[in-house]
């Protein structure tokens, strides 16, 4: 059960050792560029005008590429760039940078780049171009770096099947003025060209009984009310991706901006090279004195109580962990 933690610690140690090997002159120059990058990164989000934000993005990209061209720049962590997400897989074979550019109150552009770790310290970089706004069916096709479905990634889950590595990316999308999205996409690399590919026949609903029964999709997302807090993350102890089951607070399922967590959880389990959907991760029987599920969704006035829902979600996860522990000890 401690294997994922060991991978993480080894990855952190590896990166620390690499940075220590950089020449002092290179570190000094990279820190200088990082100071400029911090200013541009902040302005991309907080600049008062769209023109200022777009100019800052242009300056950020140019300065960033100049920094990465430095030999062995993979060894430098850029950890002061608070508005730029930097994620490493367990094997540290690459790192992925993602960020967003605010156009206006209604739209954000996602930007990104993958830097590969190279043996000679030279730069191998894949720039990612967000094509989300140009597609109405983002879940139905394999994507390249030129038509990427943009997201700000916060987790990489490394898996393997038939000797090939797959990197599942979990990310956030500030989708619209009324709703957010969270994405699950599987990154892999073409064996011949080394080019990154996003998605494939990796999301399976083979065990479902509803309208999604036996469907396989290329990538997966949830969309929900802007103000709602949702869980969508990997639990290493259970080896599951777990996310909140959502329901429309206005009984209008066609309006994704009305969706909020209802206290139940769905998930995905890596099985034979696919993420197999689990309709209900946790099943609980009511004890004496407990209220049925509807009481967790609405307050005394019949209104949706989002704070109570979030608290219940967290309690359910803790209860599930305790419930699973005796089973694992007996195996």
Compact overview of the structure:
By secondary structure, the protein is of the alpha+beta class. It contains five helices and 15 strands. The protein has a six-stranded mixed sheet. Strands 5, 6, 7, 8 and 11 form a five-stranded antiparallel sheet that branches.
Keywords for this entry:
alpha+beta, 5-stranded antiparallel beta sheet, 5 helices, 15 strands, 31% strand, disordered N terminus, disordered C terminus
Report on the structure:
There is one protein chain. By secondary structure, the protein is α+β, with helices and mostly antiparallel strands. Helices cover 27% and strands 31% of the residues. It has five helices and 15 strands. The chain has helices spanning 3-21, 24-46, 50-68, 294-297, 306-330; strands at residues 85-87, 94-104, 107-116, 125-129, 152-161, 164-173, 179-189, 196-198, 203-204, 216-217, 220-225, 232-235, 240-248, 259-271, 274-278. The strands form three sheets. Strands 10-9-15-14-13-12 form a six-stranded mixed beta sheet. Helix 2 (24-46) runs antiparallel to helix 3. The longest helix is centred in the C-terminal third of the chain and has 25 residues, at 306-330. The protein is globular. The two termini are 13 Å apart. The relative contact order is 0.08. The model is unreliable at 1-20, 284-306 and 327-331 (pLDDT under 50).
């Amino acid at each position: 059960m401690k294997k994922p933690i060991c991978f993480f610690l080894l990855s952190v140690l590896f990166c620390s050792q690499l940075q220590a090997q950089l020449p002092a002159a290179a570190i000094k120059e990279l820190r200088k560029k990082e100071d400029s990058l911090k200013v541009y990164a902040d302005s991309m989000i907080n600049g008062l005008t769209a023109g200022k934000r777009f100019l800052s993005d242009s300056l950020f990209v140019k300065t960033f590429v100049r920094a990465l061209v430095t030999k062995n720049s993979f060894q430098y962590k850029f950890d002061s760039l608070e508005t730029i997400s930097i994620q490493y897989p367990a094997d540290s074979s690459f790192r992925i940078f993602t960020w967003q550019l605010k156009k206006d109150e209604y739209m954000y552009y996602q930007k990104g780049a993958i830097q590969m770790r190279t043996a000679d310290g030279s730069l191998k970089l894949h720039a990612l171009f967000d094509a989300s706004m140009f597609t109405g069916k983002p879940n139905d096709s394999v994507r390249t770096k030129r038509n990427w479905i943009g997201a700000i990634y916060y987790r990489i889950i490394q898996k393997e099947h038939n000797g090939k590595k797959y990197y599942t990316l979990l990310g956030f999308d500030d989708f619209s003025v009324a709703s957010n999205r969270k994405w699950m996409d599987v990154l892999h690399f073409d064996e011949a060209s080394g080019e990154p590919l996003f998605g494939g026949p990796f999301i399976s609903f083979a065990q479902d009984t509803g309208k999604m029964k036996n469907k396989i999709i290329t990538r997966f997302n949830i969309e929900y009310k802007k103000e709602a807090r949702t869980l969508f993350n990997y639990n290493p102890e259970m080896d599951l991706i777990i996310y909140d089951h959502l329901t429309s607070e206005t009984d209008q399922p066609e309006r994704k901006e009305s969706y909020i967590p209802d206290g139940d959880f769905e998930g995905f389990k890596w099985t034979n090279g696919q993420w197999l959907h689990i309709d209900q991760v946790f099943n609980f029987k009511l004890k004496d004195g407990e209220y049925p599920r509807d009481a967790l969704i609405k307050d005394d006035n019949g209104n949706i109580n989002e704070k109570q829902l979030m608290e219940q979600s967290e309690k359910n996860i803790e209860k599930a962990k305790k419930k699973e522990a005796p089973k694992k000890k007996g195996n």
